[in-house]
Amino acid sequence: LFSQGKVIILENLLSQSKVKEEIWQYLNKNVTIPVILYEEKELEKITLNKYFTKAKIILCKLPQHLFKFLDSIKSSPTPDILATFHKIIKDRQGEFVLSMLIRQWRNLIIAKDLGLSGFSNMPSWQASKFISQADFFSLKELVSSYRQLLSLDLKVKTGLSCYNLNQLLDIFLVSLYYENVHK
Prior knowledge:
By secondary structure, the protein is mainly α. Helix content is 62%, strand content 4%. The chain has a two-stranded parallel ribbon with strand order 1-2. α4 runs antiparallel to α5. It is globular, with a radius of gyration of 21 Å. 14% of the residues are buried.
């Protein structure tokens, strides 16, 4: 954070940029500091071999069971959701799962409130998944749960809870089921 070293970070240069050849040539000739390229999509081997003969490549794929977990909330029985959650936190930190839950809830609120029109920049198959899942909730429930997630985040960050994050997420997930059963 406070060091004098500099680094260049470029996002989606190789997968989306129309001027990638010119930029890449400039970087190779004129830049001596480290360059980090962040790509949203996995690059083909041909591209990697063309541009990165000496580079260190780190592939950060998200586990598929994470997305199955997020998509199955409210449609699967609580024990299955909790089991999948515990499998995920063996590989990923609870903070990551919390951020993904917050993202999921934000998309579910958009789906419930705006429907397909709220997802103009998203593939229709993905938007349809959010819309289908949002049918399990009322808008009021989604907003309330979203506030719970934000409150949970605040409690963890400020040390206002005697529970750790994974325990709080367990309680949150169970409460979703509990609210559904006792209506």
